[in-house]
Specification:
38% of the residues lie in helices and 15% in strands. By secondary structure, it is α+β, with helices and mostly antiparallel strands. The chain has a single domain, classed as Alpha-Beta Plaits.
């Protein structure tokens, strides 16, 4: 793992009320684009991810000049805004499922209080990496982790380059 300002973090976020918004690839792509941007802008190093139908798991490492809270808020806000825009333009009836009675927003895509755990040693890191990659298998979406497209498993198992913004945890 590369040395950075912080230890890598295991980060999990869930769509509001576990709704399957991420079933459609266009919403997965919003997450991919956001992760790719943050890597390109040197805000994070991205080691692993999986995008399930109603939640995501990520292992990233926040880089110097940013805090984990800033990265998380930026990621959540941007992806939510882009998903709301897509829903408003193409699926306004589905957007209504995300209407909330909150003072600070009309719609809410992500559940509040996502989970973030500092991966302070290799054992914990590997446990979370394996968990992320096995999530689609356990959920019945595929038989082998590397078969699931919206995951970093194929990057590690087959050394594919589709997700060229990933960094291998061994460097």
């Amino acid at each position: 793992m590369n040395a950075g300002a912080y230890f890598p973090d295991y980060y999990t976020a869930t769509i509001l009320e576990w709704k399957p918004l991420l079933q459609q690839d266009k919403y997965k792509q919003i997450i991919i684009d956001s992760l790719s941007f943050m890597v390109k802008e040197k805000r994070i190093i991205l080691y692993a991810f999986v995008i399930m139908v109603n939640h995501i798991h990520i292992i990233w490492q926040v880089q110097a000049g940013y805090t984990p809270k800033e990265i998380q808020l930026s990621f959540m806000k941007y992806t939510a805004q882009m998903m709301i825009k897509e829903l408003r333009n193409n699926e306004p009836d589905v957007l209504e499922q995300y209407r909330v009675k909150a003072k600070d927003r009309k719609y809410q895509i992500w559940e509040r209080n996502p989970l973030s755990i500092s991966l302070w040693n290799r054992g914990v890191f590997m446990q979370k990496l394996n968990y992320i990659h096995q999530n689609p298998v356990v959920s019945g979406l595929c038989s082998f982790a590397e078969e699931y497209r919206y995951s970093s498993a194929s990057f590690y198992e087959k050394e594919t380059t589709e997700w060229n913004f990933l960094t291998h945890y061994l460097g």
